[in-house]
Write a structure and sequence with these properties.
Chain lengths: 546, 332
């Protein structure tokens, strides 16, 4: 050391060292941390899909992985991509930039791709030895069966009808959901080793449980009894209920509705029967509804598509009676406070049949005498674990209080499966703590290139009025890839390398493809540029504990 | 544009990398094996635009030359924060002499390389706006005029930051600095044209002149690469926000650089032999207020009684640039 100093040039006393010796991390008062915020789409999805997660794989063209990620939550993407009302898209942050990501259309593409390639689910790794009964093979029952089976339980579904699917088959018309898709996705669930018993209605749940030696049961019997209203009708008036009409569409004999068909109600079911009647050859189809168009419970796109197909609408009207092919309608007035009042103004219209689409009730006879079972307003009460008042009996879908959609039903099935699994293991399912939501203000949208939404092709109008061919087309591979890549990846790193690039102190370590990044807190000064420039809001600043 | 932007969703070439792009379509900074010419542990302030710009530019030179380069540095923050004796952050051959003579030193190094027959070793000079537009300007103009084989890079943070934020001939009008206080009838720096060195460099007719910002890395790297394809005098002027001197939040460094470009206040273009050959178009036009307001050096223009006349003069300045360089797409 002494000698070396003497060897140095004039005025130089130390070796040249690297600035790495200077740990500038000590300057910091805030530190950046990587996090995963929950994207608004995921947050919204009633089936709890990891939408951003599966889009991430679709973005790189890895559709198989995308499908796997998707089906970890929802086993029916082909069905979803057609009938789901996709509230995720209303929540999508991209909607605030140009237009929402076509999540639903990519989902459909993945579902169709899986059917085309015959992808199957992974079998459970081990058997639990527990037996679970699922009552009803509608979306809720199928979803619960799928999840329970993947957890290793032995699952039996008892279904009253001759085929599985519930309202997906006996309600939703073919032109919106082709049966090959439905059949394919149900079969795939059955292939997991689910025992599906058709034509075996459960009449007394306690008895069936005992007889089968089941450890737990999930009820998902739906709501099938058409609501009636007191319409004075004389002999010869043909009054039908919508659920029954749609159900008979699945049988050999198609319903006879006549040339002029009136439908009473303003929900999605009303739209479905109206459009079905058109396709069966009715010349004049009129939907009669008490309130105005904006008050209709039917989704706007369904009303729009029905109008396009020539369905007529009569708003602010109630039906007073029907006599030998003539319906008497009273005009009602909408008061300022939203209440309806009769006007005393009547008119008549001719109709060969009147179809009531006023909603459905649940048939609950199988639950008679079950101790603890609580039934309010015609639906079964469940706690936050989806369990009824009777221990070990869980329920979901249309028979419990909630929105009645396929997606909600599927979500209930998943949620119930988790709670049933925990219950069978003598524990309680604890939901992982929810991350904060990746709201629009968390994004730096500068980085996203402008890319308008891809529009799905629609069947031409002539064929829509006369055939049951599917109305809405799907995306091809190119479109689907483009659409997936419109995703902003809200709240979740998508490896754009911005943080790695923009740090003036090289304090971001790139771990390699798929492995993301890490901070080097020895040198991070806490400037926060990475947080500001991360496009998707996957980093945040937190105060240092000083 | 100096490079072909890729409309490749979701971010195309706007981000540093992008896993959906082929590696050669990403920037050099996305590379795990990048040089990090300016290493960690340097003493630049939090969020320093100059430190960032220097790593961007010098790493790009290293790539373009296959690591055969020497950098000559003027006095200024970049030199002081990187090399406090006995440490250095530079992982390249690097020499410092004085505040005003970086161009001349580089000329000398280039001559030495020529004498030694080392044609592959390329020479860079770099300095702040003070070292470039003021005290080093004579040496720089000489280097241009002799067409010496040097790439000179100016990191423009619009004042003498190293010595405590004194004005330079690159300080914008109305800006508060230690020597241009916001007092009197014309608060802040005086209104004038400043000294536009990129334009003056172009007037020398040298092979290559370009402007860039730390907000568009693809553009910056493409310009460095292009510059290294020429022999002779070349000049790149990089806009680098200074959180300390501008009174801006440290996390806003890139945002401010982006706003300078998107308002039109800092036109981004390149020129070969005195002729403009590329212009970076404004993508989302912003009013000048959005750029001025987050900076405390312009705070006296806002507050209860905003100085609308001065703000309007800034807007005129931006609009003039937009007209002069054609910064807006015709269809916008
Ligand atoms: C016409 C119509 C169109 C619709 N369109 C859409 C749409 O586009 N999108 C959407 O999201 N939702 C739609 N819905 C709503 C959606 O279909 C339902 O919310 C959903 O199917 C409910 O699922 P579930 O599993 O609870 O019940 P269901 O689908 O009704 O299935 C219940 C099953 O249980 C069986 N079952 C009943 N009782 C017993 C018993 N005692 N023993 C054994 N099995 C029994 C039934 O046969 C049936 O198969 C529509 C509904 C209708 C009526
Ligand atoms: C001849 C001479 N005069 C003054 C100084 C003091 N000095 C050192 S750096 C500097 C200002 C540097 O400003 P600039 O070139 O803009 O670089 P910045 O620090 O802003 O990056 C001054 C005035 C000096 N080193 N030499
Ligand atoms: S942009 Fe992507 S992650 Fe964000 S809400 Fe839309 S689909 Fe979800
Ligand atoms: S900046 Fe890019 S790479 Fe870094 S965390 Fe955000 S998304 Fe991931
Ligand atoms: Mg300066």
């Amino acid at each position: 050391m002494e000698n070396k100093q003497i060897d140095k040039p004039f005025a130089i006393t130390l070796d040249v060292g690297s600035s790495l010796a200077n740990k500038t991390g000590s300057w910091r008062t805030f530190r950046p941390v990587y996090l995963q915020r929950i994207p608004p789409c995921n947050n919204q999805c009633p089936a709890g899909e990891n939408i951003q997660g599966w889009l991430f794989h679709a973005e790189s063209g890895n559709y198989r992985e995308a499908w796997k990620t998707l089906t970890a939550d929802n086993p029916m993407p082909g069905v979803m991509g057609r009938v789901c009302y996709h509230t995720c898209e209303s929540a999508c942050n991209r909607g605030q930039l140009d237009s929402a990501v076509g999540i639903n259309s990519v989902e459909r593409f993945l579902g169709d791709e899986a059917l085309k390639q015959n992808w199957q689910f992974d079998k459970p790794v081990k058997e639990s030895g527990k037996k679970v009964l699922v009552v009803g093979a509608g979306p809720s029952g199928l979803s619960a069966a799928y999840h329970l089976r993947r957890m290793g339980h032995q699952v039996t579904i008892q279904e009253a009808g001759p085929v599985a699917g519930g309202m997906m088959r006996f309600g939703i018309p073919k032109y919106r959901l082709p049966r090959e898709v439905l059949d394919g996705e149900i079969q795939r669930i059955v292939n997991l080793g689910v025992d599906l018993k058709l034509n075996s209605k459960v009449k007394d749940i306690q008895e069936t449980m005992k007889a089968g030696g089941y450890d737990a049961v999930f009820l998902a019997v739906g709501a099938h009894i058409g609501k009636r209203t007191d319409i004075p009708a004389c002999e010869g008036s043909r009054i039908l209920d919508a659920a029954a009409v749609l159900r008979s569409m699945e049988g050999e004999d198609k319903p006879m509705l006549g040339r002029r068909v009136a439908i009473y109600g303003g929900g999605n079911t009303a739209m479905d029967v109206a459009r079905t009647a058109k396709r069966l050859g009715a010349e004049e189809v009129v939907v009669i509804y008490r309130r105005t168009r904006d008050k209709m419970p039917a989704h706007d796109f369904e009303v729009e598509e029905a109008l396009q197909e020539g369905v007529l609408m009569k708003w602010l009207s109630t039906i007073k009676g029907m006599e030998s092919g003539v319906i008497t309608v009273e005009k009602v007035a909408l008061e300022e406070d939203g209440a309806l009042s009769p006007t005393g103004e009547f008119e008549t219209l001719e109709a060969d049949s009147l179809i009531l689409a006023l909603g459905q009730d649940v048939e609950l006879s199988l639950l008679e005498n079950v101790p603890g079972m609580e039934i309010k307003n015609g639906v079964v009460h469940v706690n936050q674990h989806m369990m009824t008042g009777a221990p070990g009996i869980f329920a979901g879908g249309d028979m419990v209080p909630s929105d009645r959609t396929v997606t909600v039903a599927i979500g209930h099935g998943k949620k119930a499966a988790r709670h049933i699994d925990a219950w069978l293991n003598g524990g309680e399912y604890v939901k992982p703590a929810k991350h904060e939501v990746a709201t629009f203000d968390k994004l730096n949208t500068w980085y996203y290139t402008d890319a308008p939404k891809t529009v799905r092709p629609m069947l031409d109008i002539i064929r829509r009025q006369s055939t049951f061919e599917e109305v809405q087309g799907g995306l091809d591979e190119n479109n689907a890839l483009f659409e997936a890549r419109r995703c902003l990846s809200c709240g979740n790193c998508f490896e754009c390398d911005n943080c790695y690039g923009v740090c003036p102190d090289n304090a971001v370590i790139k771990l390699g493809p798929g492995k993301k990044f890490e901070f080097n807190y020895d040198y991070c000064k806490g400037c926060g540029i990475c947080v500001e420039e991360c496009p998707c809001g996957a980093i945040k600043m937190v105060p240092e504990q000083i | 544009m100096s490079y072909e932007p890729i409309k490749f969703y979701q971010t195309g070439t706007f981000t540093i990398g992008n896993r959906l792009l082929a590696p050669e379509q990403r920037t050099g900074q996305a590379d795990m094996g990048r040089t990090n010419s300016l290493n960690s542990g340097h003493r630049a302030c939090q969020g320093c635009g100059e430190a960032l710009g220097a790593r961007y530019a010098i790493d790009a030179v290293m790539r373009a030359t296959g690591n055969q380069m020497i950098a000559c540095n003027a006095t200024g923050c970049l030199e002081v924060f990187s090399t406090p004796y006995p440490e250095t952050s530079w992982q390249i051959p690097w020499i410092h002499s004085l505040f005003g003579n970086a161009a001349a030193v580089a000329t000398g190094v280039a001559a030495a390389m020529k004498v030694k027959g080392k044609k592959d070793v390329r020479v860079i000079a770099q300095g702040g706006d003070g070292g470039t537009t003021d005290i080093g300007f004579g040496c720089l103009s000489g280097m241009f005029e002799r067409n010496d084989d040097v790439l000179y890079i100016c990191y423009d943070n619009q004042a003498y930051m190293n010595t405590g934020v004194q004005r330079s001939s690159a300080t914008p009008p109305a800006a508060r600095t230690a020597t241009t206080m916001p007092v009197g009838p014309e608060p802040g720096n005086a209104w004038g044209q400043g000294k536009n060195v990129p334009q003056i460099a172009m007037a020398h007719g040298i092979p290559y002149v370009a402007t860039a910002t730390v907000a568009d890395l693809h553009d910056l790297e493409a310009k460095v690469k292009r510059a290294m394809e020429f022999r002779g005098a070349r000049y790149i002027h990089i806009f680098v926000p200074c959180p300390l001197g501008w009174g801006a939040a440290s996390h806003d460094t890139i945002r401010l650089a982006r706003l300078a470009k998107e308002t039109g206040l800092f036109p981004v273009y390149s020129a070969e032999y005195g002729e403009v050959v590329s212009v970076s178009k404004i993508r989302q036009k912003q009013p000048v207020e959005d750029y001025l307001r987050p900076q405390r050096r312009f705070a006296h223009l806002f507050g209860k009684n905003p100085n609308v006349e001065v703000i309007a003069r800034f807007q005129e300045m931006a609009d003039r640039n937009i007209r002069k360089f054609g910064l807006l797409d015709d269809n916008k």
